[in-house]
């Protein structure tokens, strides 16, 4: 697609939405944020990683020309060493009562259902969030989890209830690279700091297992979890664009 076609398509879509009574247009969005959204707006020499959005950088310029501006921003960071969390001992003691484990085949069904419930609760404050029902969630995540080595998925439980999870996966296109894809923690002050503790466990294990690179992927820049990326180098930035109609 060339510039003229891209800008024209966005403008035509906005006209159609305006005619249907819509007040705002958002791009790109493949139905909901459970599926493809965000455009790459800034990059580096680092190659694309598994499950990352891919688009020509020109798309952002075309969106601006069609009247869109960045509405929400995201980033991915690269870590090449484990920098121990100074609060690690405190966090370990605080969450010692929780069960922290990796899924195994006999627990996969229960783990999927726990992750589904937690995701719908934990992400409710994210822009454009909409709940995903169990059949759609299962169709999306079961194939993914079946391909991920279980030691790279963490589930935290409190009295049998899933209160945290971290999903990561090795990148087959970049040997020695591990991608931290999704981190979710149950709402409430009771679990404040659990995401930080899961990240510490993750980095310890990743670099201890010989991975040389960890990519903390596609984090919303308004989310407190971006604090977990403090020692990483930003390798990509993304944006979700919007315009009033």
UniProtKB/TrEMBL annotation:
Q: Which domain of life is it from?
A: Bacteria
Q: Which GO terms describe its molecular function?
A: acyltransferase activity, transferring groups other than amino-acyl groups
Q: Which residues cross the membrane?
A: none
InterPro entries from the entry?
Answer: Acyl_CoA_acyltransferase, GNAT_dom
Which CDD domains does the UniProt record give? Answer: NAT_SF
Q: Where is the N-acetyltransferase domain?
A: 103-245
PROSITE patterns (UniProt xref) = GNAT
Q: What is this protein called?
A: N-acetyltransferase domain-containing protein
């Amino acid at each position: 697609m060339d510039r003229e076609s891209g800008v024209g398509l966005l403008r035509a879509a906005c006209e159609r939405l305006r005619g249907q009574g819509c007040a705002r247009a958002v791009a790109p969005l493949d139905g909901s944020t459970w599926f493809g959204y965000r455009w790459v707006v800034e990059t580096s020499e680092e190659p694309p990683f598994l499950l990352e959005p891919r688009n020509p950088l020109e798309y952002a310029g075309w969106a601006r020309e069609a009247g869109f501006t960045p509405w929400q921003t995201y980033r991915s960071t690269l870590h090449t060493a484990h920098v121990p969390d100074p609060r690690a001992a405190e966090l370990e003691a605080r969450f010692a009562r929780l069960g922290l484990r990796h899924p195994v085949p006999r627990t996969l069904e229960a783990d999927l259902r726990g992750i589904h419930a937690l995701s719908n609760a934990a992400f409710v404050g994210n822009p454009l969030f909409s709940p995903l029902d169990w059949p759609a969630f299962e169709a999306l995540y079961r194939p993914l989890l079946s391909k991920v080595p279980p030691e790279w998925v963490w589930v935290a439980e409190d009295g049998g209830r899933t209160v945290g999870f971290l999903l990561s996966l090795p990148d087959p296109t970049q040997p020695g690279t591990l991608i931290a894809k999704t981190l979710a923690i149950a709402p409430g002050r009771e679990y404040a700091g659990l995401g930080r503790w899961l990240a510490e466990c993750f980095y310890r294990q990743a670099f201890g297992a010989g991975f040389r690179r960890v990519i903390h992927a596609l984090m919303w820049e308004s989310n407190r979890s971006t604090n977990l990326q403090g020692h990483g180098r930003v390798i990509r930035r993304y944006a979700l664009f919007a315009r009033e109609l």
